[in-house]
Specification:
Elements (H helix, E strand, L loop, with lengths): L11 E5 L15 H6 L1 H7 L3 E4 L27 H13 L3 E6 L9 H9 L11 E2 L22 E3 L5 E3 L14 H15 L5 E4 L27 H14 L6 E4 L6 H5 L9 E2 L2 H5 L4 H18 L4 E3 L8 H5 L20 H17 L3 E5 L20 H5 L43 H5 L5 H12 L7 E4 L5 E6 L3 E6 L5 E2 L4 E5 L6 E2 L3 E6 L1
Parallel strand pairs: 1-2, 1-11, 2-3, 3-7, 7-8, 8-9, 10-11
Antiparallel strand pairs: 4-6, 5-6, 12-13, 13-14, 14-18, 15-17, 16-18
């Protein structure tokens, strides 16, 4: 599936959540030294790039998405010099590096926010954020009724009586992008990291930077005043010019949870972002018609703007898909209800996850692999409350268990926790059952999830580029052709179906003359 018009159009990108990937110094927390020690695992896997979640200095109230300094490395992870070495070492292995940038907000420990608190109402320092007087006779009510995406009000009051906006934790004040100083600052941050060799940025909350300056009240569920505002396009056109001024095809990838795929695709016009995550695909339940609909809509919307699709099954914010697909009942995903109390059949979930892996690997465009996905890891649902660290859990009073379950440290080797993660334990507890799911154990097993991903990523490079042609192989069978020689089929139905003609290149499970339920196959005509 080689596309010479841009490496990012067909890239397989691996997401590293640094705290949980590998611990190099024995403090129980993942770090850059741990990543550097495991680069060969990623090279052997066959990925084209790594996307790192935030590695900046941070009090870690939100796992690093509360940034205190956008031009340095969190000491818990290492140093700026180590980051530069990691970038260089990845490049020598043919692996590009994408890093997170968090332009919607910062940490309350950021020097600008501390200056705003000290300067007081009406000051230039406060114009960098959304400080406003409260409502009511004594200003004791928030400026509007906006809710934080982490639960509770989106406003917090400071001692002098003003309130500041935070769409997430109260320790993550939102920047005011109407202020030119914010725009200049982030353009400089882009250049800082491009100068150090990074190949691109994944833009956190890419749809949320610009707010309606009138800050109107909203009905429940309405995010219009702080999502997908027209002013965003001007910002990303400016960023694209900066990216294009560097060699090596530097890329910008948007994280946008928008309900309208056509509107999301507008950010992928040739002078804006290069790519964006396909969350409609991620949240799709295990259903043949639903998957075909999402794929059709995705390809159509992206074709209209000349952009590649990007397929993703899991990430650091959502329930791992082995667990989702194994649920009895709803197999999709929603932030409104993570369904952590649902009954889960991990055997069925794993079988479906293997088939889904072959689907994402075969679809035209790029894809993302979340760390541990290649091992078949599931969501850890039984983390003790006292060990949970996600602010979502705290801000909802435990009503939402949060995202810790998909962030449990990776098992590398051995038969007992911390499974080679590091010499000092792991910051979240790992299931004992992961002894059979370590990278070491799976590397020696040709039938493992790791072997499936390695083979699929290798074969994927030779798949035909171009458009997808749907095939009719019966009710409940998702099948398509790429080029004239490659056929994909996935059986969602309750019974085996006849195996299509062709030489089997790869199958997600055992096949004979029939394609079993929840099984996918690649065929060469």
């Amino acid at each position: 599936m080689t596309d010479k018009t841009g490496w990012w159009r067909s890239a397989a990108i691996y997401q590293v959540y640094i705290r949980s990937f590998a611990d190099g110094n024995g403090d129980g927390v993942g770090d850059l030294a741990g990543v550097r020690a495991r680069l060969d695992h990623l090279a052997d896997l066959g990925i084209d790039a790594i996307w790192f979640t935030p590695w900046y200095p941070s009090p870690m109230d939100d796992g690093g998405y509360d940034v205190a300094d956008f031009r340095d490395i969190e000491p818990l992870f290492g140093t700026l010099a180590e980051a530069e070495d990691l970038i260089s070492e990845a490049h020598t292995r043919g692996i590009r590096v994408i890093i997170d940038i968090v332009p919607n907000h910062c940490s309350d420990e950021h020097r600008w926010f501390q200056a705003a608190l000290e300067a007081g109402p009406g000051s230039p320092e406060r114009q960098r954020f959304w400080f406003r007087p409260g409502r009511g006779p004594d200003g004791s009510e928030p400026p509007n009724n906006w809710k934080s995406r982490f639960g509770g009000s989106a406003w917090t009051r400071v001692p002098d009586g003003e309130w500041y906006l935070h769409l997430y934790s109260s320790r993550q004040p939102d920047f005011n992008w109407d202020n030119p100083e914010i725009r200049t600052e982030f353009e400089d941050v882009l250049r800082f990291w491009f100068d150090r060799g990074v190949d691109g940025f994944r833009i956190d909350v890419a749809d949320g930077l610009v707010k309606d300056p009138h800050l109107p009240d909203v009905d429940e569920g309405d995010e219009t005043p702080f999502s997908d505002q027209e002013g965003l396009h001007e910002i990303y056109r400016s960023w694209r010019k900066i990216a294009d001024s560097y060699g090596g095809e530097r890329v910008l990838v948007g994280e946008m949870w928008l309900p309208d795929m056509a509107r999301a695709a507008r950010y992928l016009r040739r002078d804006e972002l290069h790519s964006a995550f396909n969350f409609d695909f991620l949240v799709c339940p295990w259903d043949c018609r639903r998957f075909r609909d999402v794929i059709d809509r995705t390809l159509k919307a992206h074709d209209e703007v000349g952009a590649p699709a990007a397929w993703v099954l899991s990430n650091h914010d959502v329930t791992r898909h082995v667990t989702r697909y194994g649920r009895q009942g709803d197999t999709g995903f929603s932030f409104a209800n993570r369904l952590h109390s649902a009954t889960v059949d991990l055997e069925a979930g794993t079988r479906r996850a293997r088939a889904a892996a072959l689907l994402t690997l075969a679809l035209p465009g790029g894809l993302y692999v979340y760390q541990g996905e290649e091992l078949g890891l599931w969501e850890v649902l039984d983390i003790p409350d006292e060990l949970r660290q996600d602010p979502v859990f705290a801000r909802t009073g435990g009503a939402d268990p949060g995202r810790d379950g998909c962030r449990v440290p990776i098992p590398w080797s051995g038969t007992e926790p911390p499974f080679g993660f590091g010499s000092g334990g792991a910051w979240l507890p790992q299931p004992l059952a992961w002894a059979d799911y370590t990278a070491e154990a799976e590397a020696a097993d040709p039938a493992s999830m790791l072997s499936l991903y390695r083979t699929g990523l290798r074969l994927r490079r030779d798949l035909p580029a171009g458009s997808l042609e749907w095939l009719s192989l019966g009710e409940g069978v998702l099948a398509f052709r790429l080029g004239t020689e490659f056929t994909f089929a996935l059986n969602f139905s309750a019974s085996p179906v006849p195996l299509p003609d062709g030489e089997i290149l790869l199958a997600s499970g055992p096949v004979s003359t029939e394609l079993p339920t929840d099984t996918a196959v690649w065929l060469r005509q």
